[in-house]
Each structure stands twice: as C-alpha cells, then as structure tokens.
Amino acid sequence: MNPVYDDFFAGGAGEERTLRGNLAAYDRLRIVPRVLRATGDRDLRTTLFGTDLATPVLVAPTAFHLLAHPGGEVATARGAAAAGTAMVVSMAATQPVERIAGAGGPLWFQLYPQPDLAFTAALVKRAEAAGCRALVVTVDSPVFGRRERDLRNGFTDLPDGLACENMRDDTGRVRNIEMDPALGWDRIGWLRGITGLPVLVKGILHPQDARLAVGHGVDGVIVSNHGGRQLDGAIATIDALPAVVEAVGGRIPVLVDGGIRRGTDVLIALARGAAAVLVGRPVLDALARGGADGVRDHLRTLTADLDHVMALAGAKRPAELTPDLVAVAG
Ligand SMILES: Cc1cc2nc3c(=O)[nH]c(=O)nc-3n(C[C@H](O)[C@H](O)[C@H](O)COP(=O)(O)O)c2cc1C
Ligand SMILES: CCCCC(=O)C(=O)O
C-alpha cells in the first residue's frame, strides 16, 4: 500500500501513547480459567438490538476503504456478511451506503452529527432507507485529533476521484465532514426524536458519561478512544471498561473497541462485561491484503480463536464469561 495511506490507517494522535496503550493494557491482563465445565457444545451467537450475529466480533467504522482496496466498503461488507456479523459503515465511507447495503449483511451507520441539522437528518433518513439497523454517534471528536504522521506526510484530502459519497447533498456536491465543538447531549435527544433506530454513542470512557448516556435514553454505549486517533493520553479502553459497565448496571449493552487482536482479547473484554467488541485496523489490513475474502477469513479466524480459548477457559457461551476470569498480571 502507498506508505502515506498506510500511515493514515495505522497511525494515531500525538505520541501514539493511547494507540500503544490499548494493546499494552491487554498484555497486562491474564485469564484465570475454569476447568471440568464440559465445554463441548460452544455457541458464540450474539443478539444485538434484535439482530442475530454468528459472533460477538463486529467491524468498527473506519474511513476511506477505497484507499485500502479497489473493492472498498462493499468488499468489507461482503466479508462481514460472509462471517455472519455486522459492519458499522463510517460516515467517511468512499462508497454510497445504498451500494454497501447491497452486500446483504447487517449494517449500522456511524454519524458525526453535523452543525447543519437538516443535512444530518437527511443523512440519517438515507441510512435508515438503505437498511441500516442502528445509528452509532461518534462523540469523541469535538475537534479532529492531531495525527502527526498525516501532518508529516501532508495527507489532508482524498486523492482525485475518491470522495465521501454519503456527504453529497441534494445538489450533488460533496460536503466536508465537520467536527462540531458545540455538540452536546441535547443533540442526542434530537437524534432520538428523528429516528426510530437504536442510537449508540461511541467514544465513552468516563463512567459519569455512561450514566448520562443511559439517562438520555441511549440504546448502547461503545467504550472507545477512537483507536488512539483523537485524545492521545486517553485511558486504554479495556482499563476503562469495568467502571463503565458498573455505571450502566446492565440497563443497555456496552461494547468496546481498541487493540483487540486475538481471541484472548475478545474473551477478556466479554469477561469484563462487554456485550460485543469491534475491530478496526485488523479488518483494514485484511481488506488491503485480500479484499472481501480477506475480511471474511480474518473475522472467521478471530471468532475461531475466541471459540478455542473459551473452551480452554471453561466457557460455552459469551454470557458465561465473568469478571472473575480476569486477573491483573503481577
Ligand atoms: C483508519 C481509521 C479510520 C477510522 N475512521 C473512523 C470513522 O470514520 N468514524 C469513527 O467513529 N471511528 C473511526 N475510527 C475508529 C474506529 O472505529 C475504532 O474506534 C478503532 O479503530 C478501534 O481500534 P483498533 O483499530 O485498535 O481496533 C477509525 C479508525 C481507523 C484506524
Ligand atoms: C473525516 C474522516 C474521519 C475519519 C476518522 O474518524 C478517523 O480517521 O479516525
């Protein structure tokens, strides 16, 4: 891949402390397995917002898939569908959501609420009409993170011929995605009013924000630091998860992303109370290397790895994974 795009996909904000920290935090955790639990008939199926999935591993929203592979987001969606899981389509996708929906698998739509409310409402309706089953509102981006690799490389725009296709307005012009520093909880209420879709907020790290999310009628929270691309120095997501799960108290599902690379990482996240996890960069790497089949194989391999380590840890179902199975390494 073009090294400039490679840096865009792989990189994070600032010193990339949080990017590294997401991975390092899993490295400090260990599994305390149970034995003699007859784990022969394992079942990883997971239901989220009424959608049945083959696995608790979903595809995180990531921008610009046509930079990774000529099949773009459509190829990613085909891979996710073949693996029996959902893809969260980024608002910064390089293909129209209607075409991505043609892949046939379950989709959720990720939104950066725009200051132009009429445009935002039209985009939500468009995603809904395309068949997206949930809205994922990214709340960790009041301003854009300072990505030093991109600054060094001068990567500021998509190359000619590529565009954020879902940002076209009714004149056919592609709008720039604006990060809105004025965004507040009132906008979440407004979104709940304009859509019947479940609304998740993505980018929660503080338990008090998790409580506020529940209080504002949100349907799910995603514990995320945007893969270390926004606030460098933010807490690792697997470290933030337990307090968020406690604050939510089982009222809505809590999902988590950031640094999930192996079945053991998924196991630990589920044991700490996540209903499911999302994977970002590994899916982009799989897309770049192998298109739709690469994405399918990656998701299947990660799921098979989870299945294997669940057997070794004494669990048949995700629900049997509980916090006592996780210890902090000495
Ligand atoms: C190249 C790239 C683009 C991303 N684009 C978006 C985006 O458009 N919207 C969003 O909410 N998150 C975006 N994210 C963040 C991911 O949804 C997710 O939080 C993060 O990648 C998870 O960490 P991981 O890459 O370690 O799995 C992006 C991440 C990457 C790596
Ligand atoms: C305007 C594109 C935003 C993509 C994004 O969220 C990311 O690169 O992390």
UniProtKB/TrEMBL annotation:
Keywords: Flavoprotein, FMN, Oxidoreductase. Residues 1-330 form the FMN hydroxy acid dehydrogenase domain. FMN binds at residues 61-63, 90, 110, 138, 202, 224, 257-261, 280-281. It comes from the Bacteria. Glyoxylate binds at Y112, R147, H226, R229. The active site is at H226. One of its GO terms (cellular component) is cytoplasm. The keyword Nucleotide-binding does not apply. One of its GO terms (molecular function) is oxidoreductase activity. InterPro entries: Aldolase_TIM, Alpha-hydoxy_acid_DH_FMN, FMN-dep_DH, FMN_HAD, FMN_hydac_DH_AS. Its cofactor is FMN. PROSITE patterns: FMN_HYDROXY_ACID_DH_1, FMN_HYDROXY_ACID_DH_2. Belongs to the FMN-dependent alpha-hydroxy acid dehydrogenase family. This is 4-hydroxymandelate oxidase.
